[in-house]
Give the backbone structure.
Amino acid sequence: MSDKNVGDKVVLAGWVHRRRDHGGVVFIDLRDRYGLVQIVSDPENFKEAHDLMDEVRSEFVLKIEGKVRLRPEGQANPNMVSGKIEVLTEKVEILNTSKTPPFEVDQDKEVGEELRLKYRYIDLRRDRMKNNMILRHNMTKYIRDYMDNENFIEVETPILIKGTPEGSREYLVPSRIYGGTFYVLPQSPQQLKQLLMVASFDKYFQIARCFRDEDQRGDRQPEFTQLDVEMSFVEENDVMKLNEKLLIELTKKFRPDKKIKETPFPVLTYDEAMNLYGSDRPDIRFDLPISDVTDIAEGCSFEVFKKVVEGGGVVKALRVEGGGKFTRKEIDELGSVAKVFGARGLAYVMVEKDGVKETAIAKFFEKDELKAIVDRCEAKDGDIIFFVADKFTTACESMGSVRQEVAKKLDLIDENLFAYLWVKDFPMFEADKETGKLSAVHHPFTAPKDPKDLEESPETAIAYAYDVILNGNEIGGGSIRIHERKVQKKVFDILGITDEDVERRFGHMMEAFEFGAPPHGGIAWGLDRLVMLFADEPNIREVIAFPKDQKAKDLMLGAPSPMPKEQLEELHVKVIEEK
Ligand code: ASP
């Protein structure tokens, strides 16, 4: 409502946001999803209505009839859309009362998350959550329209499916009719979307709910939402371009204040990303590249470095401009950050005008070696160069986390940027540290870039896979898929899945590949994470209406909960009491 409505007779319904009693005259800010409007009740004119207004408290639900008028001179509120007007109440009906809410709706005060989740329906009345839900709706609608325009159709895939673990643990649903058997909840529609390609639906998408029974590390939810996409007769570039265009449009529409760092999005291989930024989801809002000095360190007399290099490891160096002024304490703190990813330590040298200062490790290097390092890192007087020596992944990731920490510390991150990029060419498999057993890095349906690798050297095979990253967060990932039975069989062999198990778990996929499966590929976005980043929120719970807490509990509903014995019996389920 605005001053255009002055003179209108109106009927309004909503919640009491605030109530102020100005010695006789009562003011109420009435709230609904669309905003606030000031209601006035005046004892002189409409006594009956006014008497009722006396009983009204915060969060009561009211129906009001009255006339819109301009607020008196000097009382307009420029921060409110309806700030110039008010409604003079003629009739009031209390539709419902309210207990005093567990926290205030009318203020953006910090409230403990446990309380917010227990009374989520009240939390959702607050501006922050309401706006997040509206943003989520608008983004989802934009995505649906975009996909529709691009000729995709949304197909719903089932929630009760067959147990065929692809990586994470699945939720089980016992069958009542077939005692002792189970459905599982899908961890993604992966196999079904591929089967839709076999069904000749060459452009599929779905806003799909996924379920993973994982330990609640970090910012995860047992159920979450993906934008799931699959296309036939495509190569990785087709999938990437379609998604890139949508991400650019979403950014322009919903975060016009953000500058996209680079379009087309930069594309790095996994190796490049790890080598340069020490992460397969690098934050490229800032530069701070990592250098490889393995070849130089190889000849030094520092035993730790030498041993690592001899054992096939690498030495990574990070030059920090002006880092020469870091204190001992600051350097130690960065050392602890490196250790989180397994580095044994963080060595360093300080760069001076003509060489480096004497530090614990500088003395193990010849002058020309030090110069080579300084040159490689493009360091100059006043800089510091950090070193980590370890196996490739450990060295890269440790240095990557130091890089991120340094950026925070030196305020190098430009908060106005949305820095997207693609990372591709991941390894197909990773080996278990203890058993050496290979598992799929993406999932077992991902095609190898070169099928010959599967025969010759599966350990180093490259996957036809790609991830899209925003400001250091993986927001989507996908791959070109295997569409031939024999290639799929080979991957299952490499993964050590027996023929019997392949038949039992993936027989339907293997068979489908024999009925004219087209070449295909796709991607899935973590929709919650994307909306979280667009909403500037710190975790995905803030953009989910009714999330679980960090221990996988629904504090409002009280789930999970025990079930009555009879119900369990019907399901042929027996509960083993935990000791
Ligand atoms: N289904 C995969 C996932 O959930 C994504 C994909 O390959 O499309 O991670």
In short: The two ends are 62 Å apart (CA to CA). The chain has a mean pLDDT of 95.
